[in-house]
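Work package 3, deliverable 3.1, input record:
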Amino acid sequence: MAIEMPKIDHDKCDCCGLCVEVCRCGALVLVNGVVTIIESKLCGWCLQCEIICPRDAISCPYEIVVEKR
Amino acid sequence: MSNLTDFLQSTPYFNNLAGKNELEGIGRYVLEKKAEKGDLIVAEGEHPTALYFVVSGAIKLFKTSPEGKEQIFGIVYGGGTFNDVAVFDGGRNPVSAQAMVASTLYSIRKSDIEIIIKEHPGVAVNVGKVLAGQVRQLGGLVEDLSFKNVMARVAKILIENSGDGYGRQHRLTQQDMAAMAGTAREVVGRSLKSLEDDGVIKIERHRIIIKDIDVLRDIAGANV
């Protein structure tokens, strides 16, 4: 089953690499100068990549669900 | 001009100094500092020693509550400054500053800033502009915190955008919620943490689980 991961908007991303540096689990890497996301169980949705991105190119969206009673 | 003088002229403090000699004179007071990821540059509550300019990287400005919760006030990127208020008002550092990634900084000692202002009166005008801009930004945050019931709006957003976990309802980032609530992302983050502390919601990685929809409706009040 696919692991939910942060999303990159490559139209906005200027590949500055700040998200790659701040990522604690190695899920973000630069491949040939392009920020690429690798599925990782270690990604804890810490939001650091979203917070640090100066171009709002990374998003960590939440699914909102109501707990069944 | 050198990289240093070019950089200085690009900052809001020195952008009205056209003379090479003036900028080079100020450059004499500049110290370079390399910070590794995680390095604490400035600690909240300590006496300020210098004004910092971010050359590259990203610096997080934050406060830590007595319970150990972190509230981020902003991130400063290349060209930005931090520790301005404490350097100019003589008080203690209002927030801590930490390198989010490896960063290069320039700093000017507090005592040297005073010399620069005396030698270059034009800088004083810029100091006023920079600090006024910060007052305006903080005024907006005060308005958010004091006049708007952000918690109620966040509660409403959660209710209106919730699903049963099987459908493909759209997902929201904290920035989305902030835009919908008319506030800052940091305020939304704090509201979510508060709701989680109260047991109304639970945040599990990329999922916000509403544990008690009735209480959440009460919080949303007339908004739902």
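The interface with chain A takes residues 37, 57-58, 72, 75, 77, 100-102, 158, 161-165, 169, 171-176, 185, 202-203, 205-211, 213 of chain B (CB under 8 Å).
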